UniProtKB/TrEMBL annotation:
It is a multi-pass membrane protein. One of its GO terms (molecular function) is NADH dehydrogenase (ubiquinone) activity. Residues 290-315 form the NADH dehydrogenase subunit 2 C-terminal domain. Core subunit of the mitochondrial membrane respiratory chain NADH dehydrogenase (Complex I) which catalyzes electron transfer from NADH through the respiratory chain, using ubiquinone as an electron acceptor. Essential for the catalytic activity and assembly of complex I. The chain crosses the membrane at residues 59-76, 96-115, 178-200, 236-255, 275-294. One of its GO terms (cellular component) is mitochondrial inner membrane. It holds the Pfam family Proton_antipo_M. Its main location: mitochondrion. It comes from the Eukaryota. It is an enzyme of class 7 (translocase). This is NADH-ubiquinone oxidoreductase chain 2. Belongs to the complex I subunit 2 family.
Amino acid sequence: MSPTIYTIILSSLATGTIVTMTSFHWLMAWIGLELNTLAIIPIISTLHHPRSTEAATKYFLTQAAASAMILFSSMINAGNTGTWDITQMSYAPSNILLSLALALKLGLAPAHFWLPEVLQGSTLLTALIMTTWQKLAPMSLIYMTMNNLPSTIQLKLGLTSSTMGGGSGLNQTQTRKIMAYSSIAHVGWMAMIASIMSNIMIMNPMVYWMMTTALFTSVICSKSKTIQDTATTWTTSRTLAIIMMLLLLSVGGLPPLTGFLPKWLVLEELIMQNLIPMATAMAMSALLSLFFYLRLTYTTTLTLPPNTLQMKVKW
């Protein structure tokens, strides 16, 4: 792809997200979402490979369906309340439909099946864009409609996502699929806190995107597409291996690293709201995610390829 076309596509991608984030009219928000979707399709299919074409098609179909559901819910709301204002979603059926549409757009379980497949069919850089930038517009819509969205649905979606993301990531060997399931689990934590505390809901994605960007950059530098590839990081750059170890543990939410902070605050707020069973279930699901991060950390820093036995380090 030529640099001029690539620049135009990236500009359209940024414009689509900004239009959605700054609009108060549902039609403008929908236009922003559609622009965002159409801009990323060529980026996914740059490889000219059947798998990347399949990933682009899957992504387009799911995002188009979610955008149509968002437009439909706003039309129902406008028909019943007479307003197209995003913050005035007062009709209950349209709020339920909007919750489900945003869940499909973000990749929240049980509407998460498209995300690992799409990430596996695209490059690591495209996967980074999809797990960070592409989540901005739907998260901003959740933030704007937070007071009207049904909290029980949000809590259930959050718990399901966290559990499915942690459980499904256990038997993966591809780093992109692991990152996809990690994204599903983290978005679950964001959905969980969305209807309770807006400040934590803003902080949670900021911390996660910062860590994910750093982790993806490390994986791109070491060209690690599978868990076995991460074992070679130590032989090429020891500094990179140590940074990757810290990042993996941080994304997993191991105290006292940065990734533990959002989880701690979410759990604290859930206990404050007397949702103790929910908080316990979320903490248990976080352990599932932590397990596959620990496995990645082990192969990255404590083994030498092609063996998986512990190496003798002389630090």
